[in-house]
Design goal:
Shape: globular
Strand content: 25-35%
Number of strands: 10
Helix content: 25-40%
Number of helices: 7
Radius of gyration: 17 Å
Largest sheet: 6 strands, mixed
Structural class: alpha/beta
Order of helices and strands: EEEHEEHEHHHEHEHEE
Bound molecules: adenosine-5'-diphosphate
Length: 230
């Protein structure tokens, strides 16, 4: 069953240039997909179309069978819960603790404070931030800030997780550990899509690559990652 379907999708921001042109692919439930390509290729645009944060000029983007470009406003909150997003500008609130940052998405979904706190602690533990929940984001390392962003993205238990360059600005070892956090969520069933231009991460972890280049998306198909057995 396809969780995401692009059908002849075109996206341009004016100026007559197609940022994405004639893009068609599908992603099945449970996949772990890397979106690769040079800076400016259109990776962020692709992720924003999936998250419903942008709409195509032509073509169809389906998520869980729903046309996200044509989703009526009242279904937007549904989409926001179904998809955990970690976009480029990680909007962690600097005046709140890590714990309060993870609590935030739960306050809008109507959980009691105690149920929300239990979930927030579970999410913080899952990403390996136990003991740091009282710290403010700026007191955390770059890698731990990404972990916090992941905890906030998954705390509502979305079936789909998308992250845009989540390892930018991290050293190699921290970057690998962050990808392994995503891989762990994928292993418990969360469909996961990571955009990166880091070829070494793709070599080590990717089981499927969508290559974005000059507006076109090439499906690299299934592959065996170097660290596939771990
Ligand atoms: P990547 O994530 O691969 O670096 P992007 O999707 O951010 O690529 O950008 C692809 C192209 O689309 C770039 O040329 C960029 O300048 C352009 N672009 C992206 N977003 C916008 C926008 N909101 N307005 C105008 N141009 C944009
Ligand atoms: P609990 O049931 O107490 O929340 P779990 O160990 O089952 O504990 O889950 C830990 C956390 O993992 C969840 O609170 C949630 O933040 C996160 N999570 C998000 N999505 C999923 C998922 N699809 N499967 C498992 N865990 C998820």
């Amino acid at each position: 069953d396809l969780m995401i379907e692009f059908q002849q999708v075109y996206k341009s921001y004016g100026r007559g240039i197609d940022t994405l042109a004639d893009v068609t692919f599908g992603i099945a439930q449970g996949e772990f997909v890397f979106v690769s390509g040079p800076s400016g290729a259109g990776k962020s645009t692709l992720l924003k179309l999936i998250a419903g944060l942008d709409v195509p000029n032509r073509g169809t983007v389906l998520v869980n069978g729903k046309n996200v470009g044509k989703l009526p406003g009242r279904f937007r909150p549904y989409l926001r819960r179904a998809i955990g997003t970690i976009l480029q500008d990680v909007h962690l609130l600097s005046d709140r603790s890590a714990f309060e940052n993870v609590m935030l998405p739960l306050t809008v979904t109507g959980h009691s404070r105690s149920a929300a706190a239990k979930r927030a602690h579970a999410a913080i533990e899952r990403v390996g931030l136990s003991g740091k929940d009282g710290l403010r984001p700026q007191e955390l390392s770059g890698g731990d800030q990404q972990r916090l962003a992941i905890a906030r993205a998954i705390v509502n238990r979305p079936g789909l997780l998308i992250a845009d360059e989540p390892t930018a600005n991290l050293d190699r070892e921290s970057a690998r550990r962050i990808v392994e956090v995503f891989r762990d969520f994928n292993r418990v069933g969360v469909t996961t899509i990571l955009a990166t231009h880091d070829e070494s991460l793709i070599t080590d972890y990717a089981t499927r690559v969508l290559l974005v280049k000059e507006g076109r998306v090439t499906d690299g198909g299934k592959r065996t990652p170097r660290l596939g057995g771990e």
